[in-house]
């Protein structure tokens, strides 16, 4: 990645495995349709909806229902600016952990 | 590194692997479908031999076939993107034109060297099949390259759309 990396910041909310997978998927796109994430990650609709709600309530992603010419409206998902920063910061914190740079004893590195 | 740190490092490594797998799965799901590329490849395969035959027999058919192929490609990609989303950063958008350029140059090169009339119609059939298959392979390679790059995290998040 070539843009400015946010500071490493471990995020417990993002670290939950399903939410981490969702954030990783959304981080690679500007916006993605609900069904595409469901297909890509092989997550059940109910679990995906539940975790998306958690992330949306934290202000990490936006959900938008868009009408289609035919059929039901589709839900589109996108990371918010704070969500993308939190995700990139979390990834950086994981990288540092793998390098043994920080531990959970460093409280400033942990949020939520 | 004490045992706690080691456990944390292992968990962090697993999380990073999860991230890489999820990103790769998303990149595969968001790739351009083969039917979009197939339509353009068929049009290109027909365009070149029709141009070689030329004359009143085919009229403006080559141009019509080419326009139809390009329209299929553009609309098909748009259709898919509006229903699934599309993973596309600035480099991929720039590369799209670059990846189509060799197809146009190839068509031009073949058209510059018309064969003796006695070679027809087999030459036209051979060119249609070879050029169409070559176009399809080239387009799928460009999709695969784009997917591999995004899956590897080789993109600028600020340039995604």
Descriptive notes:
The complex is a heterodimer of chains A (112) and B (161). Chain A has one domain: Winged helix-like DNA-binding domain superfamily/Winged helix DNA-binding domain (Arc Repressor Mutant, subunit A), CATH 1.10.10.10. Chain A is 48% helix and 16% strand. Chain A contains five helices and five strands. In chain A, the strands form two sheets. In chain A, strands 2-4-3 form a three-stranded antiparallel sheet. A two-stranded parallel sheet of chain A has the order 1-5. The radius of gyration of chain A is 15 Å and the shape is elongated. By secondary structure, chain B is an all-alpha fold. Helices cover 80% and strands 0% of the residues of chain B. In chain B, helix 1 packs antiparallel against helix 6, helix 2 packs antiparallel against helix 4 and helix 5 runs antiparallel to helix 6. The radius of gyration of chain B is 22 Å and the shape is elongated. Chain B starts with a helix and ends in a 10-residue tail after the last helix. The model of chain B has no long low-confidence stretch (mean pLDDT 79). Classes of the chains: A alpha+beta (112), B mainly alpha (161). The interface between A and B is large, with 38 and 36 residues.
The amount of helix of chain B comes to: over 70%
Q: Could you give me the name of the CATH homologous superfamily of chain A?
A: Winged helix-like DNA-binding domain superfamily/Winged helix DNA-binding domain
Taking the alpha carbons of the first and last residues of chain A, their distance comes to: 26 Å
**Major beta-sheet overview of chain B:** none
SSE order of chain B: HHHHHH
Spans where pLDDT lies below 50 across 5 or more residues of chain A: none
Alpha-beta classification of chain B: mainly alpha
Main beta sheet of chain A: 3 strands, antiparallel
Envelope shape of chain A: elongated
CA radius of gyration of chain A: 15 Å
Q: What are the secondary-structure elements of chain A, in order, as H or E?
A: EHHEHHEEHE
